Amino acid sequence: MTAPRPAHRSSGASRVAGVASALFGGGSATVFALLIVIFAGIFAMNPSFMEPPSLMAFIKNAAPLVVLAIGQYFVIVAGELDLSVGSLVGTQVVIAAALIDGEESRTGPVLLLMLVFGVLVGLVNGLITTVLKVHSLITTLGMMLVLYGANRLWTGGAPTGALSEAFRQPGRGGVEMPVVRLLPWSLLILVAVVIAAVVVMRRPYGRVLIAVGDNEQAAAFSGVRVWQVRTAAFVLSSVMATLAAVLIGGYAGVTAQVGEGLEFAAITAVVLGGVVLGGGRGTVIAAMAGALTVEALFTLFNQLSLPSTIRPAAQGLIIIAAVAYAARERSQPAPPVDDARPEPARS
Amino acid sequence: MTASTPEAAGGGAAVSTHLLRMRGISKSFLGVRVLHGVDLDLRAGEVHALVGENGAGKSTLMKILAGVHQADSGTVELDGAAVAFEHPLQAQQARVSTVFQEFNLLPDRTVAENVFLGREPRTRGMVDARRMNADTAQLLADLGLTWLTPQAPVRSLSVAGQQIVEIVKALSYDARIISMDEPTAALADEEVDLLYRLIARLRERGVAILYVSHRLKEIFDLCDRVTVLKDGALVDTVDTATLRPDELVRMMVGRPISSFFPDKLPGTAPGDVRLRVTGGGNDQLDGIDLEVRAGEITCLAGLQGSGRTEIAHALFGIARFTRGTVQVDGRTVRLRSPRQAVRTGLALVTEDRKAEGLALNQSVAANARLVLDAVDPRRAAARARRIPGLLSSLDLVARGPDQEVRFLSGGNQQKVVLAKWLATEPSVIVLDEPTRGIDVGAKHRVYTLMRELAADGVAILMVSSELPEVIGMADRVIVLRDGRIAGELPGGTTEEAVMALATGQVPGGPMS
Amino acid sequence: MSTTVDTATAMPSRRRRLGTTELVYMALLGVVVIGAVIVAISGGNLLSTANTVEMLSRSSLLGFVALGQTFVILCRSLDLSVGYVMALSSLIGATTMAGDPARIPLGIAAVVLVAGGIGLANGLIIAVLKVNPFITTLGMGLIIKGYLDTRYKGPAGAVPEAFRQFGYTRIGFVPLSAAVMLLAMAAGIAYLRTSRTGYHMYAVGGSEDVARLSGIRTGRVMITAHVLCSIAAGVAGLLIAARFGTGSALVYSSGYELDSIAAVVLGGTFLMGGRGGVAGTLAGVLILAELDTVFNVLQVDPFFKEVLRGVVIIAAVAIYARRQVERRATRARFGGDGDDGGTGPGRAPDRPPDSTAGGADGDQVVAGHGGDR
Amino acid sequence: MRKTRVLSVVAVAAALAVGACTTDDPADSTDEVDQVVDDEAGDEADSEEEAEESDADEWFVQSEYERQLAQRDIEPEGPADQPWLQAIEPEYVDTAEYAQDGNTLCFSNASVSNPWRVTGWITMQQQVQVYKDSGDIGEFRVSDAGDDDNKQISDIQAFVDAGDCNAIIISPSTTATLTPAVEAACESGVPVIVFDRGVNTDCMVTFIHPIGGYAYGADGAEFLVENLEPGSTVLALRILPGVDVLEHRWAAAQEIFADSDLEILGDEFTEGDGAAIKDIVTQYLQRGDVDGIWMDAGDGAVAAVEAFEDTGNDYPVMVGEDELSFMRKWQETGMTAIAPVYSNFQWRTPIEAAVQIWNGEQVPSEWVLPQAPVTEADRDEYLQRNADMPSLHYAKFGGENLPGYPEAWQDR
Predict the structure, then answer these.
(1) Are C256 and C83 contacting, i.e. CB atoms less than 8 angstroms apart?
(2) Which of A150, B226, D30, D195 could, after both became Cys, cross-link B49 (CB 3.0–4.6 A)?
């Protein structure tokens, strides 16, 4: 889970090297190194952390942020930004609590409704950004305010109702297993989401998405419907936020503060993963690793018994240092062109 | 036309001493040598061409002179004093200015603000906009450019206007040396002429000009001496007066020019009309009637802005035709987006590779698949299997399919673009300036490719501003003027005939 | 001769450049008029002295922050640490002054120094270490938050009575803080229009490469912008201290970073840098303050306010974007006179036609240059 | 290039070193959990003595602490079935000067950004409705500052400038920072009523509050001391640093824990976020036993309890709050717990006070409301009473006899 293996696709060494460099090269190497260092640090502090139940607990806690980071990755790699996910997570949990109100039978329909709402929010974000040409920072900032306000306007300021047991299962429950004691649903969901995300990014849509983030005009001239592709990225982000809301609501239940600040955590995670703000570069695996790194960092702080108050400072320092380090790697002069020698003449 | 004879220029240069002396310049990036031991001299009042294939090291040498890069070894002497520019600012302060290929202008700022960018005149510590405008107006007047206003936002200028602003900016530093990187690459012919006159004036003032160009004609028209680089090393520096064009080409590529435009492949014959435009028009174009046949290379010629690129864009749904009809293979189609155009069987190799053709941070493979991924996602994987074969048949030089295209040379980037479009198996392919800014070897491959495609029955519409290319390749030449078709000429026509139509002069009339 | 050219073209170009700013002020006027009408219908008077005073005093705090934010956004950067800088500055100011009027200058100096230092650090990390500004300032905010939470367990320090006047005195009906803010805005306008660094901020935001190749030390410009931004936030922190009578760390949770960005963008400054200015920002701040006042007078639910604010911000920027598109479209239209310089690297797909090149045509007769060598 | 690498390595190293400093020798002590606990506890004590002396002073006032603890045992004056009208040791002031016919009531609210405030705010509106119906209150004008001190200062100024408020109720968002604004309001001659958090002035007519943070913190801490074996471990979960009401609670708890044999594993800030709480508690449980949880507010108490369930640990001795989701969880699990109360019914009192002041009736200058924790003894009674109320509602909200009950609180 934590150390993704390079995929052996058996089409030659260059292929493996290519995948490896895609995974570990560029800005992404930093995040994997950092992740390993942090895990080593946690393990040194507390060897029991590596025991399956502890790891499972870690995954359960980290799952929502990883899911959010994957959603944010789609948007960032397309050259945009989604600040509304934190508010959306909060709103979705509140919607769930208010509408389910403890009734088990309502779980399914409400989940469906949340999905619809998530898609809707993503559509609005995407269409305002692509059709009305509003910078996504502003669009999603506005959406963040709207969701924050509307959610509290609806509930009078604090969430009401209660989540059903079924709703809480994905984030809290799991399958009884011998070694790990409880294999959390969230781990299974996470694995599914990561696989799906990797597949999506290897599919035509994923390639087109990155191309749009890299060079919008070239993509458009290649027959890409840029507005659709970008809007879909926003929809994916919102759907991921909805899933994160299900996981987080399941994990910890309803509190008034749920979701606050998650947008910045998700963006931080993605950027820490070497994905460049502005689009066109970075892998979804690295974004996921970024999210795990952020969560592992909190765990490390806890293991170090770092005073609660100083943790943000340490977090800020490490993020800046890691991104600076990755930027240093990237800003090295470009390798020279290959064909300084004349090409073979053919005629 | 040889507006400035090499003799006259050479005579002027002979009295000058060496203004600049670069000796043994070497430079490596990541351990790969891009320049080794290059020498270059510039005399006051000379126009000195710097030529070589893409990747020969021209740009790097220029950037070392400009202070953008620093040489790993070697010396630069200016007026006999050793200098080492670590920043473009130092070069400019030493009165060495550079006009780069990518415009270094701020579109949202005015001409004057751009000219004096970085050293705005101040009065009592405050920027004096009035003086800045007056000084700019003076500089423009000195060059006879009174039609340019200092307060005009650069965004509102044509390419030539922007180029001129660049040169004025260089002059405002009272430059002794101005290097120009492909200054005519983006200019229409009449604008080129304007540039020539400007260069003549600069030469009179004793300014040394280092002129990087791919266009041989300009080198012989304009330059006194030429320095040839190949593979990062100096080949020779010679007077243009004593040099023949084919000799120069041989120095650059080690290959005679004779085989440059390949012959038609056997069995190539014009077939059915694949693409027909009737009465096409929009806010840029009017009355466009056009037929492109299978197996035929049809060429759109005309001055810059005559509507060549606009037709390509209109055909591809980028800027649509608002009038008239377009038929592909006999069926009337409405092309409202590139996507529809691709689905109809069209392909467009755009003129600006970096801005419109490639996602530079993506791999060769990803770029080559892009159209398939975008337009036919379900069958993209299957159809993309052709791509490796296409790329190797195009002689692509790259580390592998995973190499990012920004690391490739212009020629190889163009091959990736071509592969991207060939992968769609188009029935009509529009090539907009397919050889712009690429080296001679790659150019040749593009020409042979066109012949191969024609032999396969693809209809080819080529847009080109290089007349030799038009004459050498086209089966039919359609000449545009002011957004309308000025006339059609058969293949093998003369450049004079094309120019006559393009400029509206009576054929056979005085050409210069 | 050049003077006639000057007058001939100065007008249109100036009009074009003022366009967005004018629009913002018209929007401000619109908000005031519509607000006044709605308030009048519900039986109030939006333009009463009390409400005007309220509006102005609401605007002053955000005004300082947005002023600083304008500089960095013009440079195509942004600063998410301003809220934390405000909090830290209020505490440093209040603890340094410690209730002693004689120590007021010392307190101000300490704030300017510390805030400037933070701006310097932000600028250095962005310009030298090449870290994305979003991440840099987010991280810097976290660092300051960590320090604040560790060092200060609550409000600290005391501001002497004399300094409190900064927060409470009025000159006529203009609160002193608003007057100072307006002065600072005026200074900001003058700075951008008359200082080289001001000019260079537009250049760095417009294109960092162009700026660098024109000999501008882009790093210094970026750093200057960040120092100014942090100092402006520091002054906002001093105003906080003056109004609170003490320094407070919790200011950082009030969301001034995003509010200030919204105000700047509302003021017509392009989020991607190189276009805009302080005058627009002032209008943006006043629009937000006026909206707040209207909502307050009308007793709008606080959460509904958030919704409206979000909608207003998006709508405003959508309108600016729309205008941008329309303006280009009209300029690109010309009948068959093919002189659209549509080539060249970095071309905008819709570069306008060039009347000047038309002049060139007439001037320089095409000399059959296409003739072979 | 090299330099930046060195720099960033140094930065990371420094950050890690900062963390490493807080434990004496992490490498040696990892094998024995007890050892870790010892080290940390010792360390905590050290740092308190060395560095936090000034901070402790700032938030701990011995006399006030003792006064509040004593007030818990004083029988309040007033009707027992209307605790919002009760007062502990009141010193009445004459309000004849404020008696008037005007009935515009202005209320500057800090925010309604948490469930406790939402519940109280509904109660207050219902109380206002009662007096509106009776004609005692005409207009009820509200400004919500959204937790922004500066905005609240403007809001108060706006009320003063408007000049037509007959009384101003202020629920300050922060004690120290709102003082000048409250003083300015007092100077305008309008009767000013402050409730919930205080301000550093006594210019207002009455200051309404429950006994206070020290008592709240002490209720929980004392309960832990009584119900845990000596040597047991306690984790303190706090919301935010620097908020006076919350800091007082923690200061009192620290005072009591210091005199006990309990070991405090740590105090963590959670911002009241359930996910953060659950994560932190889970991590503490991975490292060792946690016997008791002390919280400075009940937000997210259920998440803390769930962390014990999900990791298969026994329930801790729990300090929550009278928030219903916690009380229901408490009843369901039967764990040993207490729910300290920060009397939510105080939101009714300012309205009552305003009407009394307009009538020229005497009011206590400091109106100290009773504040008694919910214990196991009366837990079921309160749950019974609030059976139809949603979670995140507060048991002692005191609005049962208002006409809007129960719909207003249910359909918020």
Answers:
(1) yes
(2) B226
Walk along chain A (347 residues) and give the pLDDT tens digit of each residue: 333 333 333 344 445 544 555 555 556 788 898 999 999 999 998 888 888 888 888 998 999 999 999 999 999 999 999 999 999 999 999 999 999 988 899 999 999 999 999 999 999 999 999 999 999 999 999 999 999 999 988 888 788 888 899 999 998 888 887 777 788 999 999 999 999 999 999 999 999 999 999 999 999 999 999 999 999 999 999 999 999 999 999 998 888 788 888 999 999 999 999 888 888 889 999 999 999 999 999 889 888 888 888 888 988 998 899 888 887 766 554 443 333 333 333 33
Residue span of the structural domain in which C290 resides: 17-328
* Per-residue model confidence as pLDDT tens digits over B64-89: 998 888 899 999 999 888 998 888 77
Instruction: State residue D334's pLDDT score.
Output: 92
Which of A45, A162, A305 is nearest residue D30 as measured by Cβ atoms? A45
Q: Domains of chain A (ranges plus CATH)?
A: 28-327 (1.10.3470)
Domain-located, residue C362:
no
To the nearest whole Å, the CA of D199 is away from the closest chain C CA by: 11
DSSP D295-351: ESS-TTHHHHHHHHHHTTPPPPEEE--SBHHHHHHHHHHT--EEB----GGGGTHHH
**Interchain contact D275–A (C-beta under 8 A):** yes
Q: In what order do the strands lie in the sheet with D337-338?
A: D263-269, D233-238, D292-295, D317-319, D337-338
Q: Residues of A with CB below 8 A from D40's CB? A: 305
Alpha helices by DSSP H, listed for B78-182, are 88-93, 111-115, 129-142, 159-172
Instruction: Establish, for the pair of chains C and D, how many residue pairs have beta carbons separated by less than 8 Å.
Output: 103
User: A301: how many CB neighbours lie within 10 A of its CB?
Assistant: 23
Residue D82 to residue B139: CA distance in whole angstroms: 89
Q: Which residues 218-277 of A are in CB contact (within 8 Å) with B? A: 218-225
Say which residue the tokens 């036309």 belong to: B1
**Do B412 and A339 lie within an 8 Å CB cutoff?**
yes
CATH code (residue C85): 1.10.3470
Within-domain flag for C159: yes
- Sign of the alpha-carbon torsion through C354, C360, C365, C370: negative
Tell me whether residues B355 and A218 touch, CB distance under 8 A: yes
All residues of chain A having their beta carbon less than 8 Å from the beta carbon of residue C129 are 320, 324, 327-328
- Contact (Cβ atoms closer than 8 angstroms) between residue B116 and residue B92: no
pTM of the predicted model, to two decimals?
A: 0.84
Residue the block writes with tokens 């009339």: B509
pLDDT for D307-342, tens place per residue?
Answer: 999 888 999 999 999 999 999 999 999 999 999 999
CB A41: neighbour CB atoms within 10 A? 20
State which H helix or E strand residue B488 sits in.
strand B484-490
In a domain, C359, yes or no: no
Residue among D369, D314, D367, D379 at smallest CA distance from D340: D379
Q: How many domains does chain C have?
A: 1
Query: Looking at the domain assignment, is residue C74 inside a domain?
Result: yes
Nearest alpha carbon to residue B95 among B42, B16, B35: B42
Domains defined along chain D, listed by start: 79-210+347-369 (3.40.50.2300), 213-338 (3.40.50.2300)
CA angle centred on B454, ends B452 and B457, rounded to 5°: 115
Q: Which residues on A lie below 8 Å from C150 (Cβ)?
A: 307, 309-310, 313
Rounded CA gap, D29 and B415, in Å? Answer: 63
> How far is the CA of A161 from the CAs of A96, A230, A258, B182, in angstroms?
8, 36, 15, 70
B73 residue type, one letter: S
Q: Is the omega angle on the peptide bond into residue D406 within 30 degrees of 0, that is, cis?
A: yes
Pairing between β-strand A181-184 and β-strand A174-177 as defined by DSSP bridges: antiparallel
